[in-house]
Amino acid sequence: MLSGESGGWDDVPRRRPEPGGEWDGGRRRPLARLRRRTARRFGARGGLGGAAREDRAARRRSRARAREERGAEPRRAALADAAAILAAVVLVGLGAANLLAAGEPDAAVTKLVTGGVGLVLLLLVSARRRPVTPALAWSVYGLTVLLLLAVLVAGLEVNGARRWLGGGTLTLQPSELAKLAVPLVLAAVLATGRPSWRRFALALPLAGVPIVLVADQPDLSTATLLTLTAAAVVVVARVPARYLLPVLAAAAVAAPLTLGLLHDYQLARLGTFLTGSQSAEGPGWAVRQARLAIARGGWFGDRTDPVHTLAAGYLPERETDLALASLASGWGAAAAALAVVAGLVIVWRCVLGARSPRSAIGRLLCAGFAVLLGVELVVSTGGNLGLLPVAGVPFPILSAGGTATVVHLAALGLVLGGRRDGARRALWAPAARTRPRLARTAVVAVTVVLAVFAGYGVGLVRDPVALAAGVDQMTRCVVVPAPRGAIVDRHGALLAADAGDRDVRLAPALLRADPGAVDRLAGLLGKPPAAVHALVDRAPATTVDLDAGVVPGPTGDTVTRAALPGVVVVPAPRRSYPTGPVLGPVLGWVGAATPVETARQADLDPRGTTGRSGIEQSYDAVLRGVPGEQCYWVDPAGRPVAPGARRDPVPGATLALTIDLGMQRRLVADVAASLGGSPRGAVGAGVAMDPRDGSVLALASWPSHDNGLYGPPLDAAALEQVSSGPGDPMINHAIASAVPPGSTYKLVNAAADMVHPVVPPDLVVPTGGSFTYGDHTFGNWRVLPPQDLVDAIAWSNDVYFYKLAVALGPENMIDTAHALGVGSATGIDLPGESAGYLGTPASVAADGGTWYPGTTVILGIGQGAIQVTPLQDARWTAAVQTGALVTPHLGMAVGTGPGATALPHPTPAPLPFADRLGPVRDGMRTMVTSGTGTALAGVGVPVAAKSGTAEDPSVPGGGVDDWMTAAAPAGAPRLVVTALAQRPDVGGSRTVDVVADMMRTYGGAGP
Fold this sequence. Notes:
With 1007 residues, the protein is of the alpha+beta class. The strands form nine sheets. Strands 10-6-5-15-23-24 form a six-stranded mixed sheet, with no helix packed on it. It has a five-stranded antiparallel sheet with strand order 17-16-28-27-26, with helices on both faces. The chain has a three-stranded antiparallel sheet with strand order 1-2-3, covered by helices on one side. The longest helix has 27 residues, at 75-101. The radius of gyration is 48 Å and the shape is elongated. Residues 1-31, 42-48, 272-281 and 423-434 have low confidence and may be disordered.
């Protein structure tokens, strides 16, 4: 008699049922009795129908007794066994399918072979009459310990762990055999009839020996799993709590000490799980890749995707620890769910089988193996989902390990064989004394946990964020800059365009795979093959944008047509400015994007260009276009392995400016001429603008520069020479240089008298050659007779405007000046505009100064606490003439011809006092007809103007700011021209010639 058949587990024996006795040959006595009573009751009432049902029930019972008497199994038990075997076959098949989809056909064949061996062993073991015996337990245990000891001496070492025996393609992992040996030997010991303390005392060292040997390999994950299995067997064997609790308490106290036994990688795994890290530097990478693989696979897998094998390479341990995620990637979440269900079927079969074996050792083995499988399922599934640490526990039977597969299938054979042995001899074999405790509770808990895991996993399937991240990590892209749009004037004349050169960029890893491609590329580039080979060979393998140099456009097109692997031809960033210094400060230039700009604009290539100043900067978004990209598929090391998707760039749009190139050339030439004889460092500027809508027709700044100096390549020496030259050639003086406006500002103060009437415009005011206010005398530019407002403007009578300023006071003058845009930027679509300066008593005091009475007096003639740009001067000139304040602008339309799209700009803002400005306009007209501006009378168009000369300490050599501003045709102007030139304080106005030439040429026709 077996030791497990006659004693053990410390319980009172049950009375065995006799054949034909009250149990009716089974364990369903209460249910059978209820059925018989129900049949008799309803049979009596139902007549023949009840009798028929009772007959059928009797026949079923008779057939069941006949099967038992001849040793046959219950049908449902046989079906359950078949389901467990089918589940094992499914897991073997899914394991092979996983390896096949991952691009490892040889490993898939090996999996099928080892799985086949395991299934044959399963069938042979399950067919034995008495499969689970103490002799088998001690034999397996002894063999396992010997093999584990052999590992210490002659084991194969891989990655710092010594866990395998053998060599070549055939290896054995004894720690996997321990998963069967430990529950077997514990079942053999705990099922004996010895006292509980003796059985428990013997079980502890028996379990400890293989656990310590496995931990020493080191294989702490398997050691932990063996510990949990041993603990489970002890619990289900009903060892009294008085023995268990001290051991558990000691284990709890010692648990923190075990951290010192963990290796660095194991501590990293634990820390990664606790912190949620997914860094590529640590084990969190495996969790991240597992989640990405599940998302990529969707419900039915992506094995047909051409890059599936590449994606599989990113998943570490895809054959073992992360086999479930790998299966989900290749065959879909449906296949992964099938694997989990198959594992659960086996676990449930083991637990339910624990009720059947006739021996206690068989029951304990079934329960222990069920716990082992359940823990493996939970830990492996949770690790693949990132819900538990990746603990090095492979998915049972599914994973690629041959030893693990054979051992698990053999253990399942022992479980099925033990159940069948009890079922065949249930009527005469001695029964085990009690059932394992908590076994079914544990497997229910496992089922619930796996159901929760499944719910979480559903959320990962086709997760769009994970899908995008999966593609992103496998690709490296080179930005293909868009050809920059051209800039043209209002008539289509070219002002700026790409030079047409091409930049050749390489992915060296792809070229190295085809040495002939390098030679062909060298021939196309016109370079020595040795030089190109050296360039390619010394580049890191991860490079995807190696610069092979700039070539002319036709050469670049030839290289593109050659379609060499890893060669991308993109537009070079060099820009051409055919107008040179004529429009240098207006057009601006392009330059390399800064780190700040690339961080702010995700589509900006760090090696690309962006507008740095002028129109190029203001309209960069229009001109730059939309960059494209050439992507490469890269392996986990970042090496390109194949070209990926290409997205062609969208060229930048052509930008049409309001500039008239002919007017621009003439205005620049005239302003440059006006500086003839001026001291070194003097500057000049001019503005030609349509006063009706603010369209800038010409914008001159002198001295100027040629934007071609900025390249690329950058001409650093020439640029340094120009930028350090006199007169600040890099500055657009028309919008950025603010100086005193002189008598042109009298138009603003005259308008202030119309808004805040203090001196009637027709009142003749005594003037003369000077004005004394307080203890200071202010001179006039010449002795002038008494005049009204119109004549005072025409003759630029300083004394009249001194008196007018005192009468108005600073507040009224400043209020009207603000209404005409003085002291604020005009809003022109160019960067770097100065707002000028208009002081107030409060602002001067805040700056630590004093607003004297004389400050009010000289403000009346545009001196003192005021500085303006030529553009601001032109703006108030246009406002006085038209009655509306415009926003100057240069951008006219995107595109050319009938399909052009006009750019929106603010509409002119009507002045609330526009109807009161007639005397001011009359004064401007009178200046030309009979005042100081008669030089403008013969230009062929009626002109209204105002001149000005301002003292300016900043003028080199102690000169003055020479101003002239004019509008034509007077009364309905279509053109405003304002000019500034710094000259010596001798001689007459030079700017009058600038304005006269512009009006003579363009004043009649307008824009």
